[in-house]
Amino acid sequence: MPDFFESSANDCYGMRELNLLLDFSELLSNKEIDLNLVIARLGEHLLAERIILAILNRESGQIFVEGAFGFEQEENVVLSYRPGEGVIGSVIKSGKQILVPKIGDAPDFLNRTKSPVTVNGEDISFICVPIRYKDEIIGSLSFHKVYGRMRLFDEDVRLLKIVGTMIGRAVRRRQEYAEELEQLRCENQKLRGVLNQQIKTDFIIGNSGKMNDVFALLQSVAGTDATVLIRGESGVGKELIADAIHQNSLRKNNAFIKVNCAALPENLIESELFGHEKGAFTGAINQRVGRFEAAHGGTIFLDEFGEIPLSTQVKLLRVIQQREIERVGGTKPVKVDVRIICATNRNLEELIANGEFREDLYYRINVFPVYVPPLRERINDIPVLANYFIEKFNKRHNKNIKRITSMAIDMLMVYHWPGNIRELENCLERACILSTDGVIRAHNLPPTLQTAVSSKTTESGTLEMILEKHEKQLIIDSMVASKGNMVKAAKVLGITERMMGIRIKKYDIDPRRFKLR
Question: What domains can you pick out in the chain, each with its CATH number?
Answer without folding.
Answer: 9-178 (3.30.450.40), 209-364 (3.40.50.300), 376-449 (1.10.8.60), 463-514 (1.10.10.60)
